[in-house]
Amino acid sequence: MSTVVLLSTRRLPPTYFDQVREDLGDQNITIDVVGWVAPSAWVADKVNTFTLIGPGRMPAQPAPEPEVEASDEAPDAVIAPEAVAAPETVVADEAKIAPAAAEVAAAAPQPKPAPKPKPTGAKRVVKAVEWRARKARKVAGRMLPKAIKTSAPVKFIRGQRATNDLGKNYWERVLSRRDVMATIDKADVVVALDAGAIWAGWNLGQRKASTPVVLGLPAARREFDQLKAPAGNG
Q1: Which CATH number is 3-60+163-228 given?
Q2: CA quadruple 79, 82, 88, 92: dihedral, nearest 10
Q3: 86-115: per-residue pLDDT in tens?
């Protein structure tokens, strides 16, 4: 039975692993996942192992549905609504209660809010510095046009920086976990599923030349097809 290790930094739903088996053309394939983010739901029945190396917790196992047992006892008697006497209700005269409530509310003095103490000494200096910093940020924000801040190159640079940081953190965590490295050593193919896992996949490819490390499921399908193909006589 073939084994594939999936490297992922995104939240994966349980149905995704059914799609993985379909894309790889093997319903009996063993799937081990090394995830930075926990899956969206319980996946113990979908994968062999799911090792969470990032923040968060794995989803709890759903509670089994309670079974209703048949009973031979007679059902409880049902009392007709007409047989129950309605209790007498006492309705107060609103015309008499409303003026009295208004008088009580008017007579109660409203407490005045305590004045907020003004900062003095060092606190006053700190408040002044914070106010100047906020004003400077507002001025800087107005100086930089919104078209530049929301332009495609700026968004690309910000996204690239975030992806690089995530990729390095993910690889460092993979490298520091012996159980993760042991799982990867048993794999026939290692697949980096997203951009955050590319750096880890590249480093694993440099360390393990005997195990194919690919990006995406289509490339993994080609590797499994080559493993299943009979060896040539040449």
Answers
A1: 3.40.50
A2: 110
A3: 555 545 555 556 566 666 556 666 677 777
Residue in the structure block whose two tokens are 């910093």: 133
What's the farthest any 2 CA atoms get from each other in the chain? 108
Q: How far apart are CA 156 and CA 151, in angstroms?
A: 9
With a CB cutoff of 8 Å and minimum separation 6, the contacts of 169 are 36
Dihedral of alpha carbons 226, 227, 228, 229, sign: positive
Q: What is the pTM of this model?
A: 0.60
Q: What distance in Å separates the CA atoms of residue 204 and residue 177, rounded to the nearest whole number? A: 14
Q: Pairing mode, if any, of strands 49-52 and 213-215?
A: unpaired
Considering only CA atoms, which of 227, 225, 233 is closest in space to residue 188?
227
**Rounded to the nearest 10 degrees, how much is the dihedral formed by the CA atoms of 17, 21, 22, 24?**
130
For residue range 28-43, list pLDDT tens digits in order: 999 999 999 999 999 9
Run of H or E residues at 187: none
Element housing 166 (H / E):
helix 152-176
- DSSP conformational letter for 151: S
The amino acid present at 113, given as its one-letter code, is P
Q: Residue 32: how many CA atoms within 13 Å on its side-chain side?
A: 17
Report d(CA 62, CA 45) in Å as an integer.
12
Residues 6+ apart with CB under 8 A from 221: 23, 24, 25
